[in-house]
Amino acid sequence: MKADVTTLDAKTAGSVDLADAVFGLEPRVDLLHRMVRYQQLKKMAGTHHAQDRSEVNVTGKKMYKQKGTGGARHGNKAAPQFRGGGKAFGPKPRSHAVSLPKKVRALALRHALSAKVKAGELIVLDKASSENGKTAQLRAQFEKLEWKNALIIDGVELENQFALAARNIPDIDVLPIQGINVYDILRRHKLVLTKAAVDALADRFKDAKMPTPRSEGVPS
User: Fold this and answer.
1) CATH: 3.40.50.300, 3.30.420.10, 3.40.1370.10, 3.40.1440.60. Which one for 2-28+97-204?
2) How far, in Å, CA of 190 to CA of 149, rounded?
3) Most exposed residue of 16, 36, 162, 211, measured as fewest CB within 10 angstroms of its CB?
4) What is the pLDDT of residues 39-56, one digit of tens each?
C-alpha cells in the first residue's frame, strides 16, 4: 500500500510503500491485549513487602499463663490478630512477569501498526529534525500538523536537537526504532514514523507473510 510522506512544515514529500504483511493486517484485539498485559506486568517492580510474624520486632515471651485467665490461649504477641503483630499471607517481593513467545510479540507489533493504519492515525514523516532545537518552534509545527497527542518513531539514532525540543511538549513521545512497542503505540492518538523508521521496520519484518485465510468448516 502507498502512504503519503509529509514534512514538519506540512508539505508533501512524495510517498512510500508500506508492506501489507506489516501494515495491512486485520487487527486482533486479543493479541494486542496480551501484549499490553505482558508489557505492564513486566514493568511492575514487585517490591511490595509485609512483615509476617517471624519478622516483627516484638517479644517472643508467652503473653500470659496458659490456664485460668478465662480467655483464649496465646503463645506470643507476634500473631496476626494482635496490634503490632505480623500480617498473615502478606505480599512478598516477586516477579509479576508472564511469558509470551517471541513470535507472538512480533505479531502483536504488526497488528498494532495495522490498527493505526486502519484508524487513519499513521503518518509518515520525511525526517525528524530541528534547526535550532527550540521547543516553541517545534510546538508551533506540531500545532499546524494537528499533532496534539503523538508517538514519533525515528531511525536507529534520534537527532539530538529534535529530541531536546520535543521532550518538553506534553503528550508527545519520541523514540528510536529500537524502542517501538505496542503499549506506546496504542496509548497515543497518532503514530508518526519517519522514512528511516519505515525502512527499519521493512528490514525487520522482511520475511513476514500475510496470514492464510481460514477455510470454512476446517478447524484451525
Assistant:
1) 3.40.1370.10
2) 6
3) 211
4) 999 999 999 999 999 999
